[in-house]
Amino acid sequence: MAENYKKNKVAFQGEIGAYSEEAALKFFNKDVKTIPCATFEDVFRLVEKGKANYGVLPIENSLEGSVGQNYDLLLKTNLKIFGELILRVEHCLIAEKGVKLDSIKDVYSHLQALGQCQEFLKKLNVRLIPFYNTAGSVKMLKTKKLKNSAAIASERSARVYNMNILKKGIETNKKNFTRFFIVSKKEKGQTKNDKTSIVFTLKHSPGTLYKALGIFSICDINLTKIESRPIIGKPFEYNFYLDFEGHYKDKIIIEVLEILKQNCLFLKILGSYPKAKIEF
Amino acid sequence: MAENYKKNKVAFQGEIGAYSEEAALKFFNKDVKTIPCATFEDVFRLVEKGKANYGVLPIENSLEGSVGQNYDLLLKTNLKIFGELILRVEHCLIAEKGVKLDSIKDVYSHLQALGQCQEFLKKLNVRLIPFYNTAGSVKMLKTKKLKNSAAIASERSARVYNMNILKKGIETNKKNFTRFFIVSKKEKGQTKNDKTSIVFTLKHSPGTLYKALGIFSICDINLTKIESRPIIGKPFEYNFYLDFEGHYKDKIIIEVLEILKQNCLFLKILGSYPKAKIEF
């Protein structure tokens, strides 16, 4: 039976219409109330304080790489990863109704989105103006009623602000996906198709990373991602973030983590959650 | 005998007075002509075209993590890493001469620098205005002769633009270091105190990362960093960037890389260079 998330509150970073909000609505089947937040930290805080049931956070993009700040915040929170979602990022050129493509002189969006649409924008011969986020640039166009201007954002943000899509799918590389984590105080039970995320600090002796990965290899546990992040205050020492298949309550995983601990100064389970499919 | 770099041209990203320029002058003992570039790509291009002898690029910061864009550019270039330098980042509050600390209302700088000085700025009760880079914000204050305004940047940038330092060392965390790579067409010979950087793509079979790291472990080669970056166009597949001790012309390293290749779809040596000390 599908879970019922009706009336649940879901926090996300960005303006209404942001890709993170789209991820939230896809994950929860539109049954939830979304709450926009100014920063990723605010998303964590709202869920930690019980003012939201869930938080949705981008964790990596297939073109740009990992969102380091969210990895750092996961290290500190007592929330667990409840789910993951992979969203196809499709950028649209958006303007006020009645504005035509050949009258556009200025294009506003997040610097990353401008970069991802470079080839399309080159042909337009327009001025590029970096803005703090994508959906926010659509909202700004709407509020200021700017003529000869367009924004780059999601299809949904055009609908939300009642604006016109001049062109859809303007990104250079179509293999543009963002992976999101859903965090919560609640934990997700075993589904036999799970992934687990952990973070650890290795003891200072040669070959410890090799030994740590060896435990997984010997037990035939498939690693899906490894990420190193600097430890704040310890220049050029790193925490390792590892994703692997299985649930932390599975018998074999319990044993593996017990052995891994012996090679670590610190180990934290960030959560176990059903594996995502790529969403189109 | 120390090398003589006189009249060599060194490209860096940012405005005159940037931390990257400081790194260049420290590495080459002030004997060189520095060339400011708008983007990291421009730095690579200038050296590739022979218009500069060297390029200086930030590769990781001890608080913020890796500079993913430069890892991606290293993958594509035919330049080699010629050296590394670790620079202590010390932020200063800078204003026009005669402007007093208690008259400051607006503070301009790169968003990252504003974040790193948060505790100091909270006490000042000022408005924070993000700017595209640190030294550029000092230049802008100078050009526009803004009153009641200050910028956050390096001590050197205050000297360069003939401005006044209101307060030095305003960063919250003093363990703030940036590691730079110096890239060139030239290669650096063996010094017996070297590091090597490589990038590789593993074959798709279980445990390949474990096996790859095992080769280093068995041969007692010390790994100093591992970094994964998404492969553009292959969502959620990764290239691994590895730093280890030794020179790629050392007999043992030649053998290790030969074995490693058998586990890889792709392997590239980014360069071998003398290990950096932390510079204060």
Poorly predicted runs of chain A are none
Strand fraction of chain A equals 35-45%
Determine the oligomeric state from the structure.
Answer: homodimer
How many helices of chain A? The count is 9
State the CATH superfamily name of the largest domain in chain A: Periplasmic binding protein-like II
Q: What is the CATH topology descriptor of the largest domain in chain A?
A: D-Maltodextrin-Binding Protein, domain 2
H and E string of chain A: EHEHEEHEEEHHEHEHEEEHEEHEE
SS-based structural class of chain A? Answer: alpha/beta
Biggest sheet details of chain A: 7 strands, mixed
Tell me the span between the first and last alpha carbons of chain A: 24 Å
What's this, in brief?
The structure is a homodimer of 280-residue chains. Chain A has 280 residues and is an alpha/beta fold. The first copy, chain A, is built from nine helices and 16 strands.
If you had to describe this structure to a student in words, what would you say it looks like?
Two copies of one chain form a homodimer. The first copy, chain A, has helices at residues 19-27, 40-48, 68-76, 111-116, 118-124, 134-144, 155-160, 208-218, 251-261; strands spanning 9-13, 33-37, 54-61, 65-66, 80-88, 92-95, 106-109, 127-130, 149-153, 164-168, 177-184, 194-202, 223-231, 234-245, 264-274, 278-279. The model of chain A has no long low-confidence stretch (mean pLDDT 92). Chain A is of the alpha/beta class and 280 residues long. Helices cover 28% and strands 36% of the residues of chain A. Chain A has nine helices and 16 strands. In chain A, strands 1, 2, 3, 4, 5, 11 and 16 form a seven-stranded mixed β-sheet that branches. In chain A, strands 8-7-9-6-10 form a five-stranded mixed β-sheet. In chain A, strand 1, helix 1 and strand 2 (33-37) form a beta-alpha-beta unit. Chain A folds into three domains: 9-88 and 176-184, Periplasmic binding protein-like II (D-Maltodextrin-Binding Protein, domain 2, 3-Layer(aba) Sandwich); 92-168, 3-Layer(aba) Sandwich (D-Maltodextrin-Binding Protein, domain 2); 195-271, ACT domain (Alpha-Beta Plaits), CATH 3.30.70. Chain A binds chain B through residues 60-66, 68, 86, 173, 175, 177, 179, 206-207, 209-211, 213-214, 216-217, 220, 222-230, 232-236, 238, 278, and chain B through 60-66, 68, 86, 173, 175, 177, 179, 206-207, 209-211, 213-214, 216-217, 220, 222-230, 232-236, 238, 278.
